[in-house]
Specification:
The chain has about 120 residues and is mainly beta. Helices cover about 0% and strands about 50% of the residues. The protein has no helices and eleven strands. A hairpin with a 4-residue loop joins strand 7 (about 70-75) and strand 8.
Length: about 120
């Protein structure tokens, strides 16, 4: 069993920044790819970013490329999402997810553990 706990969400003005964290426990974090997804009210859960088990590969949704950065610290069992130049359309609940293998991409089915989510609200 894997437990994921997100933190760092909040209210920020457009153009601002936030850093989300996801603390993992219960399994070998350092051998698992990790991802971030988001879900706005009334919409499907969308892929944001993913990082491989050893940080040698990252993948981003086109909508966040150049603004968001995913990273991880295997010594701390934590994955991060640095969000810069935030826009109102980034408003959503952000979820951390643990993948089934060393590498992962945008498909929800590649992930088998999810956190409870953290709210990010960007005001215009």
């Amino acid at each position: 069993q894997v437990q994921l706990v997100e933190s760092g969400g909040g209210l920020v003005q457009a153009g601002g920044s936030l850093r989300l964290s996801c603390a993992a426990s219960g399994r070998s974090f350092s051998s698992t790819a990790m991802g971030w997804f988001r879900q706005a009210p009334g919409k499907e859960r969308d892929f944001v970013a993913a990082i491989s088990y050893n940080s040698d590969s990252t993948v981003y949704a086109d909508s966040v490329k150049g603004r968001f950065t995913i990273s991880r610290d295997n010594a701390k069992n934590t994955v991060y999402l640095q969000m810069n130049s935030l826009k109102p359309e980034d408003t959503a609940v952000y979820y951390c997810a643990a993948a089934r293998g060393y590498y992962s991409g945008s498909a929800l089915t590649q992930y088998n553990y999810w956190g409870q989510g953290t709210q990010v609200t960007v005001s215009s």
